[in-house]
Amino acid sequence: MMKTYSAKAADLQPSWYVIDAEGQVLGRLATQIAHILRGKHKPTFTPHLNSGDFVVVINADKIAVTGNRLDQKVYYRHSQYPGGLKKTTLRQTLEGKHPERALEHAVRGMVMHNRLGTRVMSRLKIYAGPTHPHEAQKPVIWTGPEALLKQSTAAK
Predict the structure, then answer these.
(1) How many Cβ atoms are within 10 Å of 125's Cβ, its own excluded?
(2) What are the backbone dihedrals phi and psi of residue 20, each rounded to the nearest 5 degrees, phi first?
(3) Helix/strand/coil percentages in the chain, nearest 5
């Protein structure tokens, strides 16, 4: 009789990966990051555990988008006061004070919207510039089963 493998929390060993977002398309990069954070690239994937890895994204301010998304994509937030709807375009977000929030918003929409999703998102570290403070964890450059778009087009 075959038994389905289910990992225990003590068996999981998270790794650290670095992804350079310069020139990457926003949505395609976000799906790669969500895949790594969730742990679906591992044979020990367990749906009810945080079995994913840590992801450090650098150069988030140099992310690319296709079409007219810079001006047509709008982020909404509300202050909960009457007339408190705020609108921000993707261009304003990327040129503003926190350009990493565009990528964070895209990845957040791709993970679960529950407590496990909150724990998964806590493993995502996004930085606008080329440096990050996680050198002590010895992160490796992500070259997963589906290499990122920039690397696959460079090989052709």
Answers:
(1) 18
(2) -90, 120
(3) 35, 15, 45
* Each residue's pLDDT expressed in tens, for the chain with a length of 156 residues: 888 888 999 999 999 999 999 999 999 999 999 999 999 999 999 999 999 999 999 999 999 999 999 999 999 999 999 999 999 999 999 999 999 999 999 999 999 999 999 999 999 999 999 999 999 999 999 986 655 445 444 444
Pairing relation of β-strands 74-78 and 85-89? antiparallel
Chain-centroid distance, C-alpha 8: 25
- Take residue 102 and report the two structure tokens written for it: 């565009």
Q: How far is CA 133 from CA 19, 32, 56, 102, in A?
A: 14, 22, 10, 21
Query: Which residue's entry shows tokens 């724990």?
Result: 119
Q: How distant is the alpha carbon of residue 97 from its chain centre?
A: 19
* Look-up of token digits 């690319």: 64
Residue 96's beta-bridge partner residues?
none
Quickly tell me which residue has 């068996």 as its tokens: 11
The structure tokens 């002590």 sit at 136
The enclosing H or E element of 35 equals helix 26-38
This prediction's pTM: 0.88
Residue type, 86: K
